[in-house]
Amino acid sequence: MCALSAKPGLRHSVSEWDSNNQRLSAAAQKERDTSEAIREEGRSLRDQTGCKTTWDERDTSRRLNDRAWDVARCKEALENCAQKLDAEMEALTLSKEQTEEALAATAVPLGVSAECLTLRDGRRGYELVVDPADEQLNKEVALIESVQQVLQQHVDKAFEQLCVLQEARHHLTADLQNKQDALDIDLSCLSLTVKSPQISLKTNPTRIPSGSSTPQEWLQFSLYNVARAQEAMQASQRMREDVSLSRTQLQNELDAQRRATEFALRKRHHHQERACSELQWQIKKAEEEMAEMESDIQGLDADLQAKTASLKLAHTRLENRTRRPGVDLCRDEVQHGLIDEAHQLEATITALEQKLSDAQHSLQKMKLHHSRMLQDLSRKQEALTLDQRSMNTRTRLRSTSCTDKAPALLVPLTNSSGRSELQLLAQ
């Protein structure tokens, strides 16, 4: 047989083979030991990190829960303050509307007083006097104008205060909206788990956002908003009390002045009625006297005619006896008697003529004065009618005051947004 040819290559001895096997076994043992140590360290690390992560997550959840409770408590305080602010805004709006109604109500008394003054300006002659009624009416007009100015100032101040309250309400609403958004975000974060589909890795999540605040700044901001709202509410309450007191005082002053004016008008009306009655009595007596005077004048005139006839008779007798002839033209007792009779009749006629002239002159003076009294009576009656119209005009004031004392129905007011109750944006 021919010999096999051996493969060329490096051949190892059995000892080398054993050494290699031992090295491999030792390396394998070392790797296993290393792997076992790493596994033990990994398990330990897993246990430690698992506990750490679990406690960190629980601690974070607790902090989120505490923070949500703090935000909710702050939000509740803001909501309570906002509700009180809404109530104060409605109360101030009601006070403002009542003041505006009181201001509008002064238009009727002012118009009535001006109408009374205009009516009384229609008096003529000596009846156009500046009497206490005129003085009270002018005082009433001045008082009403002053009251209107004061009420208008109250309305303007109430409007300005409402603007302040609305501004405070706006800040509270914005803060409430932010609190609600932050609360929603924190509650959403609190509801997330490792199995939530919304979780993912973010770029630089640990950055500090611009505009971040400290917890102290966060709390002070809300406290400042609440304090500003409370300060505005306190100012509004003081204003409402002042306005209510002022309205009552002004109304009392108007009522007192109204009563004083009406008393002056009634008193003046009574004086005018008494003057009219007195003048009517004087006119009646003057008419009676004029009638008697006319009768006496007729008697004087008739007596004068009779005396004139007697004088004619005496003159005729004297004239006829002058035609006696010769010695019979004697100045006898008849002649002397006729002469005395003629002189006596002439004196009587002269006296009667003078008395008749005086009577006629007196009658004319009485007629002239009678016409003056009639004219003055007409003016007095006209002034009396004007005062009566003035008093009738003022009855509108009493009906208005009685209406004001009736209980008024409260109408729900709306705020600046048009809703009867402000709804919080956070709700």
Give a verbal description of the structure:
The protein has 427 residues and is mainly alpha-helical. It has a domain at 41-192 and 217-305 and 367-403: Up-down Bundle (Ferritin). It contains six helices and no strands. The chain has helices at 14-105, 107-120, 132-191, 215-321, 333-393, 395-405.
List the helices and strands and how they pair.
Blueprint: H1 14-105, H2 107-120, H3 132-191, H4 215-321, H5 333-393, H6 395-405
**Mean of the pLDDT scores?**
86
Provide the β-strand percentage band: under 5%
Given the C-alpha coordinates, what overall shape results?
A: rod-shaped
Name the helicity range: over 70%
| Fold-level CATH name of the domain at 41-192 and 217-305 and 367-403 | Ferritin
Q: Quaternary state, please?
A: single chain
- Please tally the helical runs, counting DSSP H or I stretches of 4 or more residues: 6
Low-pLDDT stretches are 402-427
User: What is the CATH class designation of the domain at 41-192 and 217-305 and 367-403?
Assistant: Mainly Alpha
Give, in order, the helices and strands.
HHHHHH
Structural class call reads mainly alpha
Rg over CA atoms: 61 Å
The count of β-strands is 0
Reported for the largest beta sheet, the result is: none
Question: What distance separates the N and C termini?
Answer: 108 Å
The CATH architecture of the domain at 41-192 and 217-305 and 367-403 can be named as Up-down Bundle
Biased composition (Basic and acidic residues): 29-46
Subcellular location: Cytoplasm, Cytoskeleton, Cilium axoneme
Coiled coil: 75-102, 269-303, 335-369
Keywords: Cell projection, Cilium, Coiled coil, Cytoplasm, Flagellum
